[in-house]
Design a protein that fits this description.
The chain is α+β, with helices and mostly antiparallel strands and 659 residues long. It has 15 helices and 33 strands. Helices cover 25% and strands 28% of the residues. It has a 7-stranded parallel sheet with strand order 13-19-18-17-16-15-14. The longest helix is centred in the last third of the chain and has 32 residues. The radius of gyration is 26 Å and the shape is globular. The N and C termini lie far apart (94 Å).
Length: 659
């Protein structure tokens, strides 16, 4: 009897332990984490973000179920600037995704992870058809983790300052946690069209086959009106629009060789908005930076027709012919020379691209045939050797020459199924199982090595179901940057592309490039390179610590913010006309001022344009610029803001009424 209180205390003690062990856990990370279902929980319960205007910034919320399943759901509040009352409405500027998982049995290299790896991001509501999808609620099994990815978009024109809100995490109707979110918006605006060119591949039938089962069903796509060729073209355009919102150009957007011979009406209607910046992207005004001539091998009359039409439309600088991939395996050296000669003869203003390095091209005598040299990253920076990038400078000094590059299974140092690469494989890579920093850093390298463009062979190299696993050429997820968002996988009725987590990290890398480039253009190129050197030594030696990358990015952002508060070295004294008449058609705008330079761009925002858009600008003198204002920006009365912008941080503005 005397031991009864002690037994009761012991029983209560173990009951308390059992209760504690049973509780779900909630934590938060930034975008540079890959939390697997069996990962150890983190500790952070609040998140602080920084972003420019016209930038996406992301974070993740994770739930670990206790000894009972959790019916996970979440909501995000508006973000409010407490000082000014300015609000970023969550309904328009926040997108929530459920992270799906793919099975990684073998790592791509010894640095990779295995098991269930987060990658497909199922939206709560898709961005283009605005259909609810089956992201949440989702059942989290006992003892397992489930993650949510959250994109926050800062619209152009958002006043700089600190905005606060929260994420409420639910188990059914019960609140598990309220996570404070703080967003610092800097006084800089990123361009909608990427400065770093990209040319990513897209397969002809893949998305359509997953969505509709084959050619006969393509005509079911909304707007195709039963025409299968129109349907696949519209699907390709939709995928390209989706990639533009990730700051990436799918250059193989045209699904099959086409020979318009002057009949460009359908082509322009489907693809023209992607080139003109009118495709309805979330990044208003985003334009494709490259376009691959669609027929191979090139045909003289057809290519001449492409050159003529693209010249008339103002798209010519983005058009190129992909003459050969990795010769001599992709083509003979003789056929490379003959195809390039045909291209140059029939369309001399269209650039030719070959994936080869300078040394090999010179040795084979084909340099005269190539306008865009595109070597592997490890050809530019060989392991344990000096950089070969300076060797390209003399060739690049010639008119019309460009240097792009690409990555491949070489960056995992194994291209053989069943044989993972070694631990020495530390290159940038887009494989699923690699660290988030390795997925994001390639664009930093492009800046540091002064490379103008990035080629990537495919975005939808799906073998079997990509929702389960994508293993090929010894790597996981290579050539697979999005998933087929069909109704059976994500709900809804219309098929849409579903982003991979890696595509979000590529987008973030493209935004990082804009920061570096802005600092360089503001006259601080050496500083941009010195700050990068804090965590990057060369193309295969860099820190995988997310906080080092994030810390350098935040430091550059803070510097750009401070620079933006300084007076611009140019000014606007007035505009002609000084006011506009609604529905008056196109208008030639003259901007008068002082200190203008070639390359300064006149930008415009009005009720019809929405956010700030670039206008075709002509430098007249240091005191005058001219630009054409489209009549589509002048249909509604209101106030127009006219901006002259030299770079991200240097701008001057004025306003004019639209009556």
């Amino acid at each position: 009897m005397q031991d009864f209180p002690r037994l009761r205390f012991v029983g209560l003690f173990f009951a308390v332990l059992d209760f504690a062990a049973a509780q779900p856990l909630v934590w938060v990370t930034d975008s540079l984490a890959k939390v697997q279902p069996d990962s150890s929980p983190g500790a952070a319960t609040a998140i602080a973000l920084t972003a420019a205007r016209n930038e996406f910034e992301s974070f993740q919320v994770h739930v670990r179920a206790g000894d009972k399943p959790v019916e996970m759901n979440l909501s995000v509040s508006d973000l409010v600037n407490a000082r000014t009352g300015q609000t970023l409405p969550a309904a328009r500027n926040v997108a929530v995704f459920r992270e799906g998982y793919v099975n990684v049995k073998l790592p791509s290299d010894a640095n990779g992870i295995t098991g269930q790896v987060p990658d497909p991001l199922i939206p709560v509501r898709d961005a283009y058809f605005h259909e609810p999808r089956n992201a949440f609620p989702v059942t989290v099994p006992p003892g397992s983790n489930q993650s949510a990815w959250i994109d926050v978009f800062v619209p152009p024109g958002t006043p700089w300052g600190i905005y606060s809100g929260n994420v409420t995490v639910l188990d059914r109707s019960s609140t598990l946690a309220v996570i404070p979110v703080e967003l610092t918006v800097w006084n800089i605006t990123l361009p909608s069209t990427a400065t770093l060119k990209s040319a990513f591949g897209l397969s002809y039938p893949t998305f359509g086959n997953f969505a509709y089962g084959g050619y006969a069903g393509y005509g079911k796509y909304p707007g195709a009106k039963g025409n299968s060729e129109t349907g696949i073209a519209m699907m390709h355009a939709a995928v390209a629009q989706f990639f533009l919102d990730h700051r990436v150009t799918v250059s193989q957007v045209v699904p099959f060789g086409t020979k318009p011979q002057g009949g460009w009406g359908t082509f322009d209607a489907i693809y023209g908005p992607l080139f003109d910046g009118t495709a309805g992207t979330e990044l208003q005004g985003a334009r494709m930076t490259t376009i691959n001539y669609a027929s191979y091998p090139p045909e003289a009359a057809d290519l001449a027709d492409w050159q003529s039409h693209f010249s008339q439309k103002g798209w010519l600088s983005r058009l190129f012919t992909y003459i050969c991939d990795e010769p001599p395996s992709g083509c003979t050296w003789n056929s490379l020379v003959s195809d390039a000669a045909l291209s140059h003869a029939s369309a001399p203003k269209v650039s030719t691209l070959v994936t080869v390095n300078l040394e090999v091209a010179a040795a084979q005598g084909v340099l005269e045939s190539i306008d865009i040299l595109t070597p592997l990253v490890d050809n530019i920076q060989p392991k344990d050797q000096p950089s070969l990038r300076p060797a390209y400078d003399a060739w690049l000094a010639r008119p019309g020459k460009q240097l792009w590059w690409y990555q491949s299974c070489n960056e995992n140092e194994s291209c053989v199924d069943g044989i993972p690469g070694p631990a020495s494989a530390t290159w940038p890579t887009y494989t699923t199982d690699s660290s988030p920093v390795r997925n994001r850093i390639f664009q930093w390298m492009a800046f540091l090595y002064r490379v103008a463009g990035e080629l990537y062979y495919s975005t939808d190299d799906w073998t079997g179901s990509p929702w389960v696993s994508s293993y090929r050429y010894g790597g996981n997820g290579g050539g697979v940057l999005y998933y087929p968002g069909t109704s059976d996988q994500i709900g809804g009725t219309t098929p849409v592309p579903v982003a991979s987590l890696r595509l979000k990290l590529i987008r973030d890398g493209m935004e990082d490039y804009e920061y570096l480039n802005a600092l360089s253009e503001a006259g601080y190129d050496d500083l941009a390179r010195a700050l990068s050197a804090i965590f990057i030594s060369n193309a295969y030696t860099f820190s995988n610590d997310p906080q080092q990358l994030q810390g350098v990015r935040r430091l550059i952002g803070a510097i750009l913010h401070q620079l933006s508060l300084l007076p611009a070295p140019f000014s606007i004294s007035g505009c002609a006309p000084s006011s506009f008449v609604a529905k008056s058609g196109d208008v030639l705008l003259t901007v008068n001022g002082a200190g203008f330079q070639p390359g300064d761009v006149v930008r415009w925002s009005s009720p019809d344009s929405g956010s700030e858009v670039s206008l075709p600008t002509v430098y007249v003198s240091s005191g005058q610029l001219t630009a054409m204002v489209s009549g589509s920006y002048l249909t509604s009365p209101g106030t127009a803001t006219i901006v002259v912008r030299r770079n991200v941080v240097q701008a001057a503005s004025t306003t004019a009424p639209i009556r």
